[in-house]
Specification:
The structure holds 3 protein chains of 3 kinds.
Chain A (H helix, E strand, L loop, with lengths): L1 H9 L17 H11 L1 H11 L1 H24 L10 H11 L7 H13 L15 H12 L11 H6 L8 H8 L5 H6 L11 H13 L6 H20 L7 H6 L3 H8 L10 H21 L6 H18 L10
Helix pairs in contact in A: 2-5, 2-11, 3-4, 3-11, 4-5, 4-6, 5-6, 5-7, 6-7, 7-16, 11-14, 12-14, 12-15, 15-16
Chain B lengths: L2 H46 L5 E7 L2 E7 L5 E11 L4 E8 L6 E8 L22 H4 L11 E3 L9 E3 L5 H23 L2
Parallel strand pairs in B: 6-7
Antiparallel strand pairs in B: 1-2, 2-3, 3-4, 4-5
Chain C lengths: L1 H15 L12 H7 L3 H24 L9 H23 L1 H7 L10 H9 L6 H31 L1 E2 L2 E2 L14 H22 L4
Antiparallel strand pairs in C: 1-2
The chains are: A mainly alpha, B alpha+beta, C mainly alpha.
């Protein structure tokens, strides 16, 4: 079943759920380019806050993704499908979750790794187990941990204070118990990755995606809901030690991850129940990493870990065939 | 000869021969291996009690202390082992302190399994070629009471304060915590001797 | 005579490539993954295996007709364990730094499948000169693979090869390569390349 589904993907017809299948007119390029457009608000805000260098990081990443995908398909004598936008999304998403000061060579290495190892080593679009953008980011995090956790202040912040580096809201809370005002978190005037700081822009794009049904609403809802509920429980236990649920939702890369990464069609479950399980699992992992782990942020690892159990979730939540007995 | 008897004989001979070879070889190498360990320990003790020329071993309950002294038996300081968890495994540190146990003379990290290139900077920092051991050197002459604290990204300003390594805050913090705990525990035992 | 010589040459070279224990038979992966974070460590582990495997194969081949079939495995293990312990003590006594770097992986050579595998598959069935040649080929193949893997990981992960700085000052080391995930990535890449070369040469696995 799995094989059939993924073969169809190459023919640009998407089947999101196990049989029985209903054919729809949606095509891979249309979905992918819509996702790119819905990412634009976050991209624009990122460039607004972090300047022209952020734009260069994004362009370098997209270019590397497209060139890598095309050359691998050329090498493997497969049809070149870069026009379908999937490589562009990977490049864009990866750039949006990188710090603005990241060196260009690291961007190239990360994007190449994400596309070559995260996607094509598994067989290309539809066969990959993990979200390629997150694989690229994980590789960079493991390779250049200092560069991946050096944050520059936004252009607006630079006007007020003269500082070269800053900390993310999550880092500030975890290590120094300093809270960041919600207005700054919503608007995005905080240190962080290029595309993760402005919550409003991400939510706006994400909602369009959900309304068009290009992403399963259950995943962001259950992911964010679990984080809010679990975060809230810990906050009620000890408000000094643990941040409040709203802070959990708005700070860091959770919004970007919940709307655009966890919902990746290839690497998330294809059944409604599976989507709930996926979101609840990712949310639980995120809270565990944020509150009890060594790192301040855990969106990337929570999604990658849930990606790895997606085939299992699909297997257990497959709807019964009519008349089948247990 | 029955097969069973042959099996027993062959295995017995093999085991006896193996045992014989190994005990002879161990007899030959054991002193050398012990000597390595001894020199390593001695080197560490003299490193953490810098002016010591000799040392005495002192056992109080389960704890072992090495009191460093000059040739005229003037006691200069005491060294003991401090152990605890680092970022991903055990860190063990030999701590040298003055006889009142309020000031650190020097520390030496004996074992650690921190992340190579990051946490390992607590032992050796290649990014600072002038003083690759700057992190442990900060503890020389550091006031350990009431407790050691650390700061990030700035020069230490108060007594008893050290600077954490950028990008390896957790390893730095672990070292400070291990030292604070061990000093508190050993002070009670050692000063009551 | 010539066929005798070629077959001896074959016994030696098969371990280097065609039946390379790591790349082709996927044996002994635990030390391969664990100690190759630098070229020196990979090479030292390889040398320890050359010593153990050659000595064990020689002895096993010599006593192959004396040992009853039913107790051959325990006998092999006693022989291997003896040589491994000798290697481990030697390293600890004369090369303490290497011994520290390799840690528990030297004693663990006892359970390295390459060693027991060669005794069972070859040394216990062949005359001593062939057993030695086979053991040398296999262990040198193992050593070469580990050294190359160690060189590759050290180059990217630390910017040096055999502790000699290779990369320019400005090179930012890929920390992941000297961490455990880097071992899996590099080994996977190496096996992939080996398979690709073999498919070009028309060698079937």
């Amino acid at each position: 079943m799995e094989g059939k589904k993924t073969n169809k993907l190459e023919e640009k017809i998407l089947y999101l759920s196990p049989s029985p299948h209903v054919k729809s007119g949606e095509s891979v390029p249309r979905i992918m380019w819509t996702v790119v457009i819905t990412l634009m608000p976050a991209t624009i805000m990122g460039v607004y806050f972090f300047g022209i260098r952020a734009l260069w990081v994004i362009l370098v990443s997209i270019a590397t993704a497209v060139i890598t995908e095309a050359s691998i398909q050329l090498m493997r004598r497969k049809k070149i499908t870069v026009y379908n936008g999937s490589a562009v999304i990977t490049g864009l998403l990866l750039a949006l979750c990188l710090p603005p000061s990241i060196p260009y060579y690291a961007v190239i290495i990360g994007t190449f790794f994400g596309i070559a190892v995260g996607k094509h080593a598994f067989g290309g679009l539809g066969y990959n187990i993990f979200n390629p953008a997150l694989i690229g980011r994980a590789f960079l995090q493991a390779s250049f941990p200092v560069k991946m956790t050096t944050w520059t202040p936004t252009l607006l912040q630079q006007k007020c204070v003269d500082a070269v580096t800053t900390a993310t809201p999550l880092g500030l809370f975890k290590f120094e118990k300093v809270t960041t005002p919600y207005v700054d978190l919503l608007w995005g005037n905080v240190g962080g990755c290029i595309g993760e700081t402005c919550a409003i822009a991400i939510i706006a794009g994400g909602i369009i995606l959900l309304v068009l049904r290009y992403a399963d609403w259950r995943i962001p809802l259950s992911y964010l809901g679990t984080v809010a509920i679990l975060g809230g429980i810990f906050w009620l236990i000890n408000p000094e030690q643990y941040p409040d649920p709203l802070f959990h939702l708005l700070a860091g890369g959770l919004m970007l991850g919940a709307f655009f990464m966890a919902t990746d069609m290839v690497t998330s479950p294809s059944t409604p129940l599976g989507s709930w399980i996926f979101g609840i699992g990712a949310g639980t992992l995120l809270i565990i990493i944020r509150l009890f782990g060594g790192l301040p942020e855990g969106v990337m690892y929570s999604i990658i870990l849930m990606n790895s159990v997606t085939p299992l979730i699909n297997m257990f939540t497959r709807p019964k065939i009519l008349g089948e007995k247990k | 000869m029955s097969n069973t008897a042959r099996m027993i004989i062959v295995l017995t001979i093999a085991a006896i021969l193996s045992g014989a070879i190994l005990s002879v070889y161990n007899f030959y190498t054991y002193p050398k291996i012990q000597a390595h360990r001894q020199t390593e320990l001695e080197k560490a003790i003299f490193e953490v009690i810098p002016d010591a020329e000799e040392y005495k071993k002192l056992e109080l309950g389960e704890k072992v202390y090495y009191v460093g002294c000059t040739k005229k038996e003037k006691e200069l300081g005491v060294a003991f082992l401090a152990e605890g968890n680092g970022f991903q495994g055990k860190i063990s540190i030999l701590v040298g302190m003055n006889m009142d146990m309020d000031t650190i003379l020097a520390i030496k990290i004996l074992e650690q399994v921190e992340t190579p290139g990051l946490g390992t900077k607590i032992v050796d920092d290649p990014s600072n070629p002038e003083d690759r051991k700057w992190f442990t050197n900060q503890f020389k002459g550091l006031r350990a009471l009431p407790e050691i604290t650390y700061v990030k990204n700035e020069k230490p300003s108060k007594p008893g304060q050290i600077q954490a390594i950028t990008g390896a805050t957790i390893s730095s913090r672990s070292v400070v915590e291990i030292l604070n705990n061990a000093i508190k525990e050993n002070r009670e035992i050692f000063l009551k001797r | 005579m010539s066929s005798f010589k070629t077959s001896l040459a074959h016994e030696f070279t098969k371990g280097l490539w065609k039946e390379n224990p790591v790349l082709r038979m996927l044996l002994g992966l635990c030390p391969t993954l664990a100690v190759t974070n630098s070229a020196v460590n990979g090479l030292s582990m390889g040398l320890a295996v050359i010593f153990t495997l050659t000595c064990s194969s020689t002895l096993i081949s010599l006593i192959r007709n004396i040992v009853p079939k039913q107790v051959r495995i325990p006998t092999f293990i006693i022989v291997i364990a003896t040589f491994v312990t000798v290697a481990d003590r030697t390293l600890a006594a004369f090369f303490p730094t290497i011994s520290k770097a390799l840690g528990p992986y030297v004693p663990l050579i006892v359970v390295n499948c390459i060693i027991l595998g060669r005794q069972e598959a070859f040394a216990s069935k062949n005359p001593v000169h062939r057993a030695i040649i086979d053991a040398l080929g296999m262990s040198i193949g193992f050593t070469l693979t580990l050294t190359i893997l160690g060189m590759f990981r050290e180059l990217l992960g630390a910017g040096s090869i055999f502790n000699l700085p290779i990369m320019p000052e400005s090179f930012d080391t890929w920390l992941v390569m000297i961490l455990p995930p880097g071992a899996f990535l590099a080994l996977g890449l190496m096996i992939g390349i080996a398979n690709w070369i073999n498919s070009k040469l028309g060698i079937k696995s």
